Amino acid sequence: MTAVSSFRSTLSxxxxxxxxxxxxxxxxxxxxxxVAGLVRPPAGPVTVVGGAVIDRTPAAVxxxxxxxxxxxxxxxxxxxxxxxxxxxxxALGILALSHRRAGAAGVLLxxxxxxxxxxxxxDSTGAGDALPSVAGxxxxxxxxxxxxxxxxxxxxxxxxDGEGTAGWSRRSFLAAxxxxxxxxxxxxxxGRFFTGRQGQGAVASRxxxxxxxxASPAPAVPAGVQLKAPGITAFTTPNSDFYRVDTALTVPxxxxxxxxxxxxxxxxxxxxxxxxxxxxxxxxxxxxxxxTCVSNEVGGPYIGNARWLGVPLADLLKEAGVRPPSEGxxxxxxVARSVDGMTLGxxxxxxMDGRDAILAVGMNGxxxxxxxxxxxxxxxxxxxxxxxxxxxxxxxxxxTFDAYDPYWVKRNWARRAPIKTQARxxxxxxxxxxxAGTVTVAGVAWxxxxxxxxxxxxxxxxxxxxxxxxxxxxxxxWRQWSYRWNAATGGHTITVRATDGTGLVQxxxxxxxxxxxxxxxxSVFVTVP
Length: 529
Ligand SMILES: Nc1nc2c(c(=O)[nH]1)N[C@H]1C(S)=C(S)[C@@H](COP(=O)(O)O)O[C@H]1N2
Ligand SMILES: [Mo]
Prior knowledge:
By secondary structure, this protein is α+β, with helices and mostly antiparallel strands. It contains 11 helices and 18 strands. The radius of gyration is 29 Å and the shape is globular.
């Protein structure tokens, strides 16, 4: 036997080990998904490990992920987890060729990681959440043990006889591998099927939900809120285009029939639990409100405006006996909790000061989409989403800012976060090449609760010039603006700034999104050819 052929046989043997490892990992994940599908889909291993990673990611990294991958951030994370898993599976598979027990034990260790992640998630419902990871790990360990025992190396002194034995053993390995792959594929598919079926009740409950007419319809939006400039944002963001920011790797599918909302805590004289029908039987209000994410960079996309339908939250709180701090109430923080364990804290004073804080059931004329919080979410005009806009809400607890830090505050974001005045250029696009002559520069500006009274545009280092403002819809919505620019050939920087209803000019001071929202002027560089 030459050195080269011995090297080759070692290599092909290692390839069998790698294949065994990958198949074991595949079997582990498939069995875990099957068990999760039967027990509780959100307890699937990739979901719980991904969720645990999200929970532990430093705010700066999370902000980077949102900025870089946008709404694909979760897909990137899941892909990353699977890629890391595959690498480790290959290593364990090769290890198992010489140390079968150690390889199998390595797979079991991954089960432990899955169990720890599952139980640490804020929405963990108890020991049952460990089941998918345990079952997957056992299946994976057994698979690796059996496959490794069949991956017999080609004997170094293989004569005619030896070749025969090696060929036979390789066939037996490949047969076992094929059976494993087929079984795992079926288990995975079955798991997906059960997961899908569990969501069907929720889907049906949404499909059959008929939204009542509002007792208080949205004030008419003036005809002039929508400018005609090409490339400008729509005044009302369609649900399908509305940005989505949350920590949910699987979107909660809540059945409206079994959904409950509990209101309790400090200063709640009459704690209550509501069904959806009870909420829908109350007088509903309909309002146009622009929602903004604190992770929105200057000029960024994480803002949207919709027509929301819902129950005035302050009325429910008053009925429960809650008083705002300014009237002697003992609770200054309202903590909203979602079915997936997210917590968001809002100032009780803001929720009860007369603004249209609502428990929304409708978005642009239809029941809330699952992505946006079906069946009920909270909204408080003027506050960033992470301190107000709890999706899939199920619990409202009155407490104090001293006593409790919600999810994002534990991760170094500010306790209180009113939306900062901002203006954004939507057209022309960055590095665009508009033709010389009249160019329409246009965009949106927002200062929810305060309104926008002025927008100014500056070309290069020139003087600030007033932009034309679209009609002002309610104060809680963004406002469009446009400016006719006589563009000369060359490279130009267009900068915009807004003034809000209190007379304050938007600050030039650049701030990062952490801890309480980005600030600074948006500018766009274009080349006029
Ligand atoms: N349950 C839950 N609610 C949540 C969040 C979340 O992660 N989980 N994210 C909040 C944040 S940071 C924002 S900006 C808004 C975004 O709402 P949208 O996805 O409907 O645009 O939801 C808020 N409500
Ligand atoms: Mo957000």
